[in-house]
């Protein structure tokens, strides 16, 4: 940062599906910005980037220090997030120009965008357009995705906590099934998130110590589903162990790319029945073998489960928020802080950064050497990668038996511009 | 207990659906029996009562003290449970006689049966038959059911932990939905257990502080489902709050008694589609209003979730196990220890007991004054009842990011009898 650079405000926004630790990143951004003499106020977008477009900015200086600190143990998006992808500059120039207009009106010189692949693309475009319009904005992405599919970072904040939730839940439900199998349920199916990459399902593999332990079968999007091979394996498990625990990624698909969840089921009125690959897989097993089964769909429970967050994940989420501000005030533009693994045992990590141009719109899938040769489990290498990410507990405070999560007041910054239709 | 009464062994069995704390009751039984000079060894049935019928008895003295202690923080049924209901004495005399034969062969004078309504009935019949066959057995039930539907006890061990899981998960998922609602999911449905009574669904009501907070709608088995009223309420919630969180009991039913889950859905092959009232309700909302929705089915995850168990529940589960042994050695037969509430604020409880004859085969539903007049929520009275039951955390120990649950060795007692076909 140049000396005597003018103090400018910062804009922070949450984007896409939220996580158990995205607010920890918000906390890292806000607390670090507060200590910087280059940054004035941090304004947060209400409902993410939509808040910038509609000039609905939350003044974070109106929140108490305790509330800001409390974000570190509060799940979901405290300021509101948005599934709202700005298209290319050509199609959507008006929206990008509006962003710059709002930034200019509120003396915003820093843009921290807390999201996944799409958001990194948006942050990059804003930095380019700001420069071309003569209003330079330092744009730094803050990585967040439970899907763990951002490139150039060893892992993504948000993933470790989902991974922990899934591994813990799989271990617990497996004990349940094992204890009932002789006279009751023999097959249990847990459906987890991960539309395109199998990271979350793979994390269930931490529940046991190898192919003899649960989960007996993991169905990954990276491995084309072979029905007969799967059904044979289920029968073998029930024969050998008395029961079978299956974890299936919502993105599990046939060889031709169709999702298993897209089972063509119809309700009584002939309408397409809701997805849910869990029940589809359970039904397959029932029809083939007749075993008594149960299935669970964790859905939002898994990504909101701050009560069982990974301590490493919470620390990394905070650290990338902090690093984003430090990079920005040093004048490093159009980058995203990354997690760099120095060693796995003991686990050591540090913060690096990558250009947004190399991160935007790219997806990192499970590498082949993380997948067992039979396709139904994870390798020792995958386990070494995953294990440190779920390490440590980071319990929120409780009152009356319930976690006390922070709530923001959300005081709005006075508007200076006219309306804009989103 | 009479002085100089002969030392006799005890038989302990787990029955029915397991819970996060049934092993804490096992721990209470075994540790207390170890300290009693009237009880020799505690034998546990492998897979519950099936283990007695097949003379597959686990010698708990072959487990380390650390393992027995570890049961207190280990979910599910460490010795195996069974869904196996002994029918009436008339139809099933051979099985009851076999039980007595096995008890006689192993000098078992105490029978501790850890289960719900059915199990209390079985324990009662065994005590009656033992007496009539000249082999008296002191039979004491140990209450366990996540459904909280046993009469004569203020609450049932197992319930408090499910209640806590459901309340915490509802609070967390609600924050997730709230933060995304502007541009994404507007309706979230969480399906929870409770086939006949709405206790578990009611516990979700603890997540918020009243009708303005989540869950906006609870669907209870005790309240006949009215579709239009429900759909109107959903629309009102989305209009007023921007989103709607619904918790539905698996036992939610139409006025004529049909389960909502029995929706007559068919898969592509015309087969009846699996239940899951969560997706059924979500689909209803979609068809009526077109809102974007998500649904989750917690299934076994909720009752196995020892990682978020209620401390009060763990303590009560241990206490009823301990009390069962204390009652038995005092010669009190055919009873079940109960939880007696002395006050709600502050919460004070003690242990009482009730005759098995008054507990067996009865179900306690949510009383009408626990249900809000609109049928979609709980009253302040219900909240006062529920709140103490989820109080306190009781975290298991962790290693490498995962809870370390106890595993028994399960050494089998040498058999003395011939085979018996179950």
Describe this structure in words.
With 422 residues, the first copy, chain A, is an alpha/beta fold. Chain A has two domains: 205 residues, Rossmann fold, CATH 3.40.50.450; 146 residues, Phosphofructokinase domain (Rossmann fold, 3-Layer(aba) Sandwich). In chain A, the strands form four sheets. Chain A has a five-stranded mixed β-sheet with strand order 3-2-1-4-5, with helices on both faces. In chain A, strands 7-8-6-9 form a four-stranded parallel β-sheet, sandwiched between helices. In chain A, 59% of the residues are buried. The interface between A and B is large, with 81 and 80 residues.
SSE topology:
Two copies of one chain form a homodimer.
Chain A: E1 8-14, H1 22-35, E2 39-45, H2 49-53, E3 57-59, H3 65-70, H4 93-105, E4 108-115, H5 117-132, E5 138-143, H6 159-180, E6 187-192, H7 199-203, E7 217-219, H8 227-241, E8 244-249, H9 277-289, E9 293-297, H10 300-304, H11 311-329, E10 335-343, E11 348-355, H12 356-359, H13 380-386, E12 398-399, E13 402-403
Parallel strand pairs in A: 1-2, 1-4, 4-5, 6-8, 6-9, 7-8
Antiparallel strand pairs in A: 2-3, 10-11, 12-13
Helix pairs in contact in A: 1-11, 4-5
As laid out across the biggest beta sheet of chain A, the strand order is 3-2-1-4-5
**Helical coverage of chain A, percent range:** 25-40%
Regarding quaternary structure, how should these chains be classified?
A: homodimer
Order of helices and strands of chain A: EHEHEHHEHEHEHEHEHEHHEEHHEE
Q: Beta fraction of the residues of chain A? A: 15-25%
């Amino acid at each position: 940062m140049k000396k005597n650079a003018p103090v400018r405000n910062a804009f922070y926004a949450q984007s896409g599906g939220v996580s158990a630790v995205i607010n920890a990143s918000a906390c890292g951004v806000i607390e670090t910005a507060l200590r910087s003499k280059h940054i004035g106020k941090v304004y947060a977008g209400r409902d993410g980037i939509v808040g910038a477009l509609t000039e609905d900015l939350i003044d974070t200086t109106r929140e108490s220090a305790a509330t800001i600190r409390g974000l570190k143990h509060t799940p979901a998006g405290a300021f509101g997030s948005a599934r709202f992808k700005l298209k290319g500059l050509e199609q959507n120039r008006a929206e990008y120009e509006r962003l710059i207009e709002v930034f200019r009106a509120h003396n915003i010189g820093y843009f921290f965008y807390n999201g996944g692949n799409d958001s990194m693309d948006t942050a990059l475009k804003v930095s380019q357009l700001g420069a071309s319009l003569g209003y330079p904005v330092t744009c730094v992405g803050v990585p967040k995705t439970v899907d763990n599919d951002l490139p150039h970072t060893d892992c993504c904040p948000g993933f470790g906590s989902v991974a922990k939730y899934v591994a813990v839940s799989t271990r617990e439900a497996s004990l349940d099934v094992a204890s009932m199998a002789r006279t009751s349920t023999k097959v249990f199916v847990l459906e987890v998130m991960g539309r395109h990459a199998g990271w979350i399902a793979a994390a269930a593999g931490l529940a046991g110590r190898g192919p003899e332990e649960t989960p007996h079968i993991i169905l990954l999007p990276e491995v084309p589903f072979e029905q007969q091979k799967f059904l044979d394996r289920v029968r073998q498990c029930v024969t050998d162990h008395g029961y079978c625990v299956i974890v299936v990624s919502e993105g599990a698909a046939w060889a031709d790319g169709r999702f298993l969840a897209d089972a063509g089921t119809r309700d009584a009125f002939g309408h397409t029945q809701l997805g849910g690959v869990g029940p589809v897989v359970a039904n397959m097993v029932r029809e083939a073998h007749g075993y008594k089964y149960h299935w669970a769909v964790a859905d939002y429970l898994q990504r909101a489960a701050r009560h069982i967050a990974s301590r490493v994940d919470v620390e990394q989420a905070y650290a990338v928020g902090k690093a984003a501000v430090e990079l920005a005030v040093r004048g490093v533009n159009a980058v995203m802080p990354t997690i760099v693994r120095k060693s796995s045992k003991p686990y050591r990590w540090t913060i690096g950064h990558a250009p947004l141009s190399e991160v935007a719109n790219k997806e990192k899938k499970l590498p082949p050497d993380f997948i067992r040769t039979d396709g139904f489990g994870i390798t020792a290498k995958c386990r070494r990668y995953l294990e440190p990410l779920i390490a440590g507990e980071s319990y929120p405070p409780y009152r009356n038996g319930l976690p006390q999560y922070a709530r923001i007041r959300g005081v709005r910054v006075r508007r200076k511009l006219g309306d804009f239709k989103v």
